Amino acid sequence: MKIATWNVNSVRARLSNITDWLKSTAPDVLVMQEIKCETDAFPAMEFQALGYKTHVLGQKSYNGVALLSREAICDVQEGLPLYGGTEDLQARYIEATISGVRIANLYLPNGNPMDTDKYAYKLAWMKRLHRRMGELLKTEMPVVLAGDYNIIPAATDVYDPKGWEGDALYHPKSRAQFQRLLALGYTEAFRALHPKQEKAYTFWDYQAGAWPRNNGLRIDHFLLSPEAADRMVSCTIDALPRAVDKASDHTPVILELR
Predict the structure, then answer these.
(1) Which residues pair with 221 in a beta bridge?
(2) What 3-state DSSP class applies to 35?
(3) Segment 41-50 mean pLDDT
(4) Please, is 196 exposed, middle or buried when counting C-beta atoms within 10 Å of its C-beta (0-12, 13-18, 19+)?
(5) Structural domain boundaries of the chain?
(6) Is there a contact between 251 and 244 (Cβ–Cβ < 8 Å)?
(7) Cβ(126)–Cβ(177) under 8 Å?
(8) Segment 5-41, tens digit of pLDDT
(9) The domain 2-257: what is its CATH number?
(10) 102: nearest Cα among 254, 251, 227, 235
(11) What is the DSSP letter of 240?
(12) Fewer CB atoms inside 10 A, N or C side of the chain?
């Protein structure tokens, strides 16, 4: 089973890039973040023509997540549970069962600027995610949580660690929350297989020549429950889509399970 995650930075603006990549790579499942369109504006027919079923949680102009699958998308949950908190109108989370694997697609809040309520929202969202991930472990299903975490886990995952210390993506509180997720018993797929690989990035800003200079960040991750980690074959970053015309600032990450 080949599962890919990709923050596409507007599905309609990148549609030809995405469909071309699907034709050449043919994942069984693609989870997309930051689709930036309402659910009824999602170009489902173009993906259905390639053999993919779709389920979308959209939002006008911002956020939005989508699941594409060659197999049936079952038992869908839209949105991260509130656990008694206030209503969350941001479309950032969708979860479903596909071929016996529970797959969650998440677009974790950025959190910048840190001196605003955006950072408090990020940390609160991660606490809700922690609780949901604990619940998913109890199902004893293979669980895959994929997406744009907006977290740089370690210095190896950023081109300039010192320069990012004051950013919400690399702040110690953010990284500590990410470690709490792993402490539940989840495996971070890429680092488990490539513990020492450097300059393995998934995001390059559009500004300051970040892509040609390889000034990147690794912020798109797969977290696997023990049942999923036991089936892991590979986890790779496909940087080629970042080099094409009108590219997203993120590139796909691909997980293969037995």
Answers:
(1) 147
(2) coil
(3) 98
(4) exposed
(5) 2-257
(6) no
(7) yes
(8) 999 999 999 999 999 999 999 999 999 999 999 999 9
(9) 3.60.10.10
(10) 227
(11) G
(12) C
Pair of tokens at residue 18: 């995405």
pTM (2 d.p.)? 0.97
Peptide bond into 113 cis (omega under 30): yes
Pairing of strands 29-33, 2-7: parallel
Q: CA 133, CA 184: separation in Å to the nearest integer?
A: 8
Token couple for 58? 């959209």
Alpha carbons 148 and 39: distance in angstroms, whole number: 19
Tokens read off for 105: 């697609």
Place of tokens 């939005």: 64
Q: Partners of 187 in the beta sheet?
A: 224
User: 10 Å Cβ neighbour count for 243?
Assistant: 11
* Residue-level length of the chain: 258
Structure tokens at 97: 């069962």
